[in-house]
Amino acid sequence: MAQLFEDTVLKFPVLIGDIGGTNARFAILTGPHADPKEFPIVQTADFATIDDAIQTSILDRTSLRPMSAVLAVAGPVEGDEIRLTNCPWVVRPKTFFGELGFSELIVLNDFEAQALAVVALGEPHMEKIGGGTGEALASRVVLGPGTGLGVAGLVHAVHTWIPVPGEGGHMDIGPRTERDYAVWPHIEQIEGRVSGEQLLSGRGLVNLYRAIARTDGKEAVLTTPAEVTAHALDKSDAIAVEAVEMFVTALGRTAGDLALVFMSKGGVFLTGGIAQKIIPALKTGAFRRAFEDKAPHSHLLSTMPVYVITHPLAALAGLAAFARTPALFGVETHGRSWSA
Ligand SMILES: Nc1ncnc2c1ncn2[C@@H]1O[C@H](COP(=O)(O)OP(=O)(O)OP(=O)(O)O)[C@@H](O)[C@H]1O
Questions:
Q1: Is the four-CA dihedral 262, 267, 272, 275 of positive or negative sign?
Q2: Which residues make Cβ contacts (< 8 Å) with residue 192, sequence separation at least 6?
Q3: 89, 137 Cβ separation under 8 angstroms
Q4: pTM metric for this prediction
C-alpha cells in the first residue's frame, strides 16, 4: 500500500469522465465494489459547456446523485479554469459545487487516466505489435492519436504506480527519408513547426494525405480520417495507403523516442480512437521498424513490447480503478482537487 498518497478518499457515488476533443465518456460508480454505470458517449461539439453536457446527458437521465467527480481532460490541468486543447469546453470547479451539486472534484489529464488503465486492464484488453517482453515493474509509456496526440509515462516507485502526465504530443517531428523531405513542406504547420499532433491525430492523418497529394500534384478527394483509413486498409486509394504508412511510421518513431525517454522496458501502450482502428496497418512491420530504428539503442528498443489497448473505454476503466482506491495509485491531487 502506498504511503504517500493515502489522504484522498472519495465520496460515492462518483462521476467519472474521460473528456477528449471530440468525445466525452461518462460513468457513475455507486460504490467501491460496483461496476460503473456507463452513459452514451457525448460529442463535445453538441454542448456549449461541460456543465450543460453533464446536466443534460447524465444528471437529467438518472436518479443517482453523484457526490464526487473525477474528470480526465485532454489538456494541461492548471488553475481554476481548465481549458481543453482541442475543444472550447472549460472546467470551472466552482460550478460543479453550486449548479451541479457535487461536493468534491478531481481533474486529471486524459492520458494520465489512460496510464491508470494500463495498470487496471490486463492482457485480454491488449493486442501485441511485434516482439519483446515487458519487465513487470519497469517504466511504461502510453501514447495515442485521437483528436490530438496524448502522451503519459507510468513509473513504479514506493510500491505504487505513478502516472506522469505531460504534453508530449506537441514535441517537434521532422523528416527522415528522402520522401519525407519532399512531403514535409506541404504539411500544415503550427507557428512555423510540425508537431507530433500535426501528423498523429485524426486531422493529422488528413494533413498527411493532403500533403502527399500536393507533393505528387494529385487531387485530394478524401476528407475525413475514417475515409483515409478505410481506403488505405482496403487498398482502394494509393494516396491513402501511403498516408497511413507514413502515419504508422511517424507513430513508430514517436513511440520509440518516448520509449527512450522513459526507458520503458515495461512496454509501450498505444491507445486513443485511431490505434484500435488501424491494427492491421500497425502489424505490417513498418511501425516496429521505425520504433526500433534508434541507433545506438536499436537492440534495447527491440526488447520492448508494444501493445494496442483494445478496451473501448480504457480511460474510464483507469479512472474507475483510481476512484475505488485512490491510495493504490500515486496520483498527485495537490492543486488538482477542489471541495465545496
Ligand atoms: N476509422 C477511423 N480512422 C481514423 N480516424 C478516425 C476513425 N474514426 C474516428 N477517427 C478520428 O479519431 C478522432 C477521435 O479520437 P478519440 O475517440 O480518441 O477522441 P477524443 O478522446 O475526443 O480525442 P483526444 O483525447 O485525442 O482529444 C477524430 O479525429 C476522428 O476523426
A1: positive
A2: none
A3: no
A4: 0.95
Q: Where are the strands (E) in 146-224, listed by range?
A: 149-157, 160-165
Measured CA to CA, the distance from residue 256 to residue 287 in angstroms comes to 10
CA distance 246 to 181: 12
Domains in the chain, CATH or no CATH each: 14-115+315-339 (3.30.420.40), 122-310 (3.40.367.20)
**What is d(CA 25, CA 79) in angstroms, rounded to the nearest whole number?**
23
Q: Does the structure show a pLDDT above 50 at 2?
A: no
Pocket test for ligand 1, best of 41, 42, 77, 147 (most atoms within 8 A of CB): 147
Was 180 annotated as part of a binding site? no
Instruction: Give residues (CB < 6 A) around ligand 1.
Output: 20-23, 74, 86, 110, 146-148, 150, 202, 205, 225-226, 229, 272-274, 277
**Residue 135 burial by CB count (10 A; 0-12/13-18/19+): exposed, middle or buried?**
middle
- Number of other residues whose CB lies within 10 A of the CB of residue 158: 10
Place of cell 509509456: 141
Q: Are 113 and 318 in contact (CB under 8 A)?
A: yes
Tens digits of residue pLDDT in 84-141: 999 999 999 989 998 899 999 999 999 999 999 999 998 899 999 999 999 999 999 9
- If you take atom 25 of ligand 1, which residue's CA is the nearest one? 20
168 is in an annotated binding site: no
Decide: 51 and 82 in contact? Cβ < 8 Å.
Answer: no
Q: Report the phi/psi class of residue 191: left, alpha or beta, with left for phi > 0 and alpha for psi in -120 to 50.
A: left
Reported as a single tens digit per residue, the pLDDT across 310-323 is 999 999 999 999 99
Residue 204: all three cell numbers together = 493529422
**492548471: which residue's cell?**
78
